[in-house]
Each structure stands twice: as structure tokens, then as C-alpha cells.
Amino acid sequence: MILETEYLCLKEMRQDDFDDLKMMLQDPDVMYAYEHNFSDADVQSWLDKNIKRYNDFGCGLWGMYLKETDEFIGNAGLSMQDTDVEQVIEIGYLLKKEFWHKGYASEITKSIKEYAFNELGLSKVYSIIKHDNIASQKVAKKLGMIKEKEFMTKYYNGDMLHYLYSISK
């Protein structure tokens, strides 16, 4: 187990998480920020990439589970991401739709921020948020992050406006 909060725990994802991950990454509502659903091959690539990150960097997007039932509800963690001019360490997360608006994103990002600062010794972390993702902007602000800038990111259907939020230790 990587992290534990009052209601959640983060663990490294394994191949047997594929079906749960697939259900989430192929849900059009969950994936609206990406503006496309993942194919089975995309899901496998996502899983493989994060398992590689665990081995190479000691972090990535971990599986997020309800502590009480061990049910997979999403993923969250730390990963290197590109902005328009630099790479940053991002706190990121995705939740299955049925777990939206229950406070889980705020709960887990607070714990990840503390882990990044206190366990990994990072001095600053970021969140890259699509301009119309109001719920994630609220989570970032609740975490104490401030909006640093706006920039365009290349996606499957062209460029998309994103906001870069950050917080320093």
C-alpha cells in the first residue's frame, strides 16, 4: 500500500486491474477531458506505462480503492507531465463516475500532496486541468493551489486550453 486516508487507499495497479481500469477509461463521461475513449490497447498501454513508472521512478498513477471494500474506484498519484515549456510533477486523478462529488478527489489529493512534500522531498507540485473542468479546478483550489498560467495542449482532436495550478511546500 502506498497511501491510506480515512476512506481510501492507493496501491500499485497490477494486470488484474485491467477490467476495472477499462470500465473507467472507456466511459465517455469520465474521459471527457481527454475528448476520446480509450481502446483496449490504450487501456493496456496506460496500465503498462504506470507499472513502468513505479519501477523507474517509485511513483505514477496508483489504483484508488475504498478501504472498507477494496473496490477499485479510480486512480491517482504523481507523474511527470509536459506543459507548453517545461516538465512538471503533477498530482493527477481519475474517478469512476459513480464516485464523483463524494469528496474522494479532495481526500486523496491532500494525501498525495503531503506524500510528495514529506516523503519524496518535493518542493512544488502541479495540476494540469482542462479549462472547462470546474470540479477539478475546485479540488485544486481546495488543496491550496493557485493558477499559474494558461497554455494549449495537443490532444487527439487538436489543441485544448489547460490551466496550470501549483502549490509549494
TrEMBL record:
Domain N-acetyltransferase: 8-169
EC number: 6.3.5.2
Listed SUPFAM superfamilies: Acyl-CoA N-acyltransferases (Nat)
Root EC class: ligase
Keywords: Ligase
GO molecular function, one term: acyltransferase activity, transferring groups other than amino-acyl groups
PROSITE patterns documented for this protein: GNAT
Pfam families named in the record: Acetyltransf_3 (PF13302)
Record-annotated membrane-spanning stretches: none
Listed name of the protein: Putative GMP synthase
Organism: Bacillus thuringiensis
